[in-house]
Amino acid sequence: MLELRAVSRHFGGVRAIDGLDLRVAEGEIVGLIGPNGSGKSTAVNVIAGLFPVTSGEVLFKGQNLERLPTHRRLQLGIARTFQNIRLFGQLSVWQNLWVAQNSPEDRARRGFFARWLGGQRGARGEIAQLLEFSGLAGKQDELAANLAFGEQRRLELARALATKPKLLLLDEPAAGMNSEEIGQLRERIQRLRGRGITIVLVEHVMELVMGVTDRIAVLNFGQKIAEGTPAQIQNDPLVKKAYLGGA
Amino acid sequence: MLDFAQVVLDGLLFGATYALIGIGFTLVFGVMHKLNLSYAAASIGGAYCGLLVLQVMAGAPAWLVFLCGFLAGGVLGYVVYLACFHFIPFSSPLATLMSTVGMLLLIDEIIVHATEGRPLNYPAMFDDVMLRAGELSLRGDLLLVFAVAVLCMAALLLVLYKTKLGIATRAVSQQPMAAQLCGIRIGRVNALTFVVTGLLGGIAGALIGASVGTLSPLLTLPLTVKGLIVTVIGGLGSIPGAIIAGLLVGGFENVFQLYRGVTERDLYVMLLLFVFLVFRPGGIFSPQSGRH
Amino acid sequence: MDFYYGLAQIVGVHTLLGLSAYVVLLTGQVSLAQAGFFAVGAYTAGMLTVLAGWHIAPALGASALCGAATACAVGFPALRVKGLMLVIATLAFGEGVRLVFFNFDYQIAKGGIKVGPLGGEGFRQIRFFPENGWTTFDVMLFIWLFVIAAMAALWWFDRSRYGAVLRAVGEDELAAQSVGVNLTAVKVSAMTVGGAIAGVGGGLYAHYTTHIEHSSFNVLVATFAIAYPIVGGLSNVFGTLAAVIFVQAFLVEGLRDLGDWRNLLFGALIVAAMNLRPHGFFGRRH
Fold first, then answer.
1. Spatial separation of the C-alpha atoms in residues B288 and C17, rounded to whole Å
2. Cα separations in angstroms, A204 against A23, A28, A215, B134, C284
């Protein structure tokens, strides 16, 4: 579904990612880990279209995404969450989700005629479902900025889901969470896989990564140094070296 | 052809004042990431204060008037800092912008009140001197304007690059948080930035008064617009950009006036700005401080 | 009574000016170009009623269209400049429009005299209202018809998805893009709507003052335009209305006794207001 071919992204002299090859099959949950500065977030940004690639190709369902702006990638089905939550703080929970309903299906629903044929009700129902799924039911009129941290994280995820993604890029969703919250997040991610969403999970929290992913790719200094199942990665000496130093 | 060259030359010399105003706008932007729309008005205000010398000492030499304008500009700069930047929280950029607009109106009105709306004569130096460079003539007073402006710019660059204050200023403009953590007192740096730009503005105002011959409150708005144009063309945050752009605008302005007359002149200056905005929105130089 | 009707006319037209800046401000764009669209609307409507003999209503429709078209044209290049650069660019645009009208002559002879805009002297004799027997009261009602329509439309926007999208863009462009919002479409459309409102305001302005000139559309007017929504707060349209009433009715007219000092006071009051209530009188939402 997603393929990165020899993707490089340079910022001046810094090679944030260098010759990265990655393949994600439909329905998989792939983890992307590595020490700080290894290029994980840059990879997400490149896939999402925030930065163009310096070289290499990003393909989604066989289509080269070059030059496609972020909002068009969204319409193809690529959504992402942000490491430092970027909610619309001055909008309510409901409005945060409402504003995100930009999938082709939702756009058609807002078309002139569809509106008269009950289109709006459909959209409303979906937002209610999302709130339910994220444990935010009843909070719909609360300003996003006034939510508790955990609730904000859940809203961030819910908002990405409101776009009806086929591929979901999660950028460190578990940062700052306690064990119980991580467990809930894990469950949610598994339910998303059940709905057919492909997921790329960038994360530091090993508890989550090892427990929910099918495969893991490890980055260090912008390059992939290992790839395999969680079990394989846990025992890989190169990975251990990268994390524990001596690089 | 000769007319053209002469007009360009005069324009370049006068453009040094625009450069100073541009520097003032761009320096405040570079350090505080905010726009001080009252700056040009404060500069003219400082120049007016220079005239107070003549009230106290009739027949005082022109340079004393200029000096007074210079110093008054610095004081005004500090006042503007207190009124518009010191107390308003950083998270309200719109409020800061509006308060500088309020300040602009306030300064304008104070000038109108104090002078009863009548334009005042401004002393000049060397206005009877005319040097020759080949076929071209160089007005003495314009040469002085240029020389003083260049001196101020040089002094500013010296301060910025060779003194502790200058280094602190550049640090704050690049990384305010980190600068604070290093013990740099941001409030002090910001206030001093305003004083320094105020000084530059005061002398610029005085020089404009000297070369035009009169001061009037009607000067403030066009000067604000031109100063902003210079700042944008030069690149927000770039001092060398403001210098070059100032000279450029001065030169072009005169050329436009030569070919299309006074009423259409400003329209073409505006077009110059739009050309830059379309082809080079970052200005001649992208900003010095990499705060983006 | 006529005095109060006149005041209401001024408040009405300034509210339209403020509302045109309000909708653009929601998307995070600080535009000092609204006075330019206002000017375009004013000259358009004036020329249509005076030179072409149109009725005021279709003339205002044309003002709205011209204002919108100009704004749309400005909206696209405006996307390339961010933040404070946009402030300067729009200020320069507004000045540019003013300078164009400063140099604009188009006169035709009507009944023995020449009418039409004449460069620096401006455009006099825009006498549709007096020539058709409209009283000050009639004009006031007419103006407020449009003000109420504009406020209703923007109020409705605010409650609709479009309004939420505008504010989302104003708050965080990156996040908005990432959930699929087309920034270009949103920002340019907001600018266009603002241009339409300003155009209508300008057309009305031209007719109740009967005489317009380039200096009626200067930098000060441009800053008044954004001052209203900033001082009133961006929560809803009533903030802008309140700010206009406060400024025009109380400050300008109420302090009339202070004569020349009220302009001075006005500047000082803005500085004070911004220091005391940086988020405007009607502050943050909720």
1. 37
2. 21, 19, 15, 73, 36
Of B106, B231, B281, the CB nearest to C81: B281
Question: Do residues A158 and A198 share a domain?
Answer: no
- pLDDT-derived band at A117 (thresholds 50, 70, 90) equals low
Domain that holds residue C207: 2-218
Give the Cα separation of B227 and B73 in Å (integer).
16
Query: Same domain, yes or no, for A155 and A178?
Result: no
Domain that holds residue B263: 2-279
- The answer to whether position A82 is within a domain reads no
Who among C91, C95, C267 is closest to B109 (CB)? C267
Residue A83 within a domain: no
Query: Which A residues, 54 through 93, put their C-beta within 8 Å of a C-beta on chain C?
Result: 69-71, 74-75, 79-80, 82, 86-91
Full DSSP string of B224-273? HHHHHHHHHHH-TT-HHHHHHHHHHHHHHHHHHHHHHHHHHHHHHHHHHH
Residues 6+ apart with CB under 8 A from A110: A119, A123, C161
A98: tokens are 């409402």
Q: Residues A234, A182: one domain?
A: yes
In a domain, C73, yes or no: yes
C63, part of any domain: yes
Where is the domain boundary, A163, A179, A202?
A163
CA distance A33 to A239: 10
What part of C 235-274 touches B (C-beta under 8 Å)?
Answer: 260-261, 263-264, 266-271, 273-274
The per-residue pLDDT for C285 is: 44
Q: Are β-strands B214-215 and A63-64 bridged in parallel, bridged antiparallel, or unpaired?
A: unpaired
> pLDDT tens, C104-135?
888 887 777 777 788 778 888 888 888 888 88
Residues of C in contact with A90 (CB under 8 A): 167, 171, 284-285
8 Å CB contact of B270 and C274: no
Cβ–Cβ contact A102 with C under 8 A: yes
A145 and A181 together in one domain: no
pLDDT band at residue C263 under the 50/70/90 scheme? low
Picking from A50, A88, A163, the nearest residue to C180 by CB comes out as A163
What's the total number of domains in chain C? Answer: 1
CB contact under 8 A, C167 and A163: no
Please report the DSSP string for B93-113 in residue order: HHHHHHHHHHHHHHHHHHHHH
Interface contact A137, partner C, CB < 8 A: no
In C, which residues are within 8 Å of B83 by CB distance?
271, 275
* Domain match, A215 and A239 both: yes
Q: How many domains does chain B have?
A: 1
DSSP state of C88: H
**Which residue is it, tokens 């530091």?**
A204
Q: Taking the model in full, what pTM does it have?
A: 0.85
User: Which residues constitute the domain of residue A169?
Assistant: 1-77+165-247
| Chain B touched by C100 (CB under 8 Å) | yes
Residue C240 forms part of a structural domain = no
Among B84, B113, B271, whose Cβ lies nearest the Cβ of C264?
B113
Average pLDDT, chain C: 86
User: Which of C85, C91, C266 lies at the smallest CB-CB distance from B281?
Assistant: C85
- Claim to verify: residue A60 and residue A104 sit in the same structural domain: no
Does residue C285 lie in a domain region?
Answer: no
Any idea what the CATH number is for the domain that residue A18 is in? 3.40.50.300
Which stretches of chain A are assigned E, i.e. beta strand?
2-11, 14-24, 29-33, 55-60, 63-64, 78-80, 167-171, 198-202, 215-220, 223-228
Give a yes or no: residue B196 inside a domain: yes
Decide if A74 and C178 are in contact by the 8 Å CB cutoff: yes
Residues A170 and A157 in one domain: no
> Which residue, A139, A163, A187, sits at the end of a domain?
A163
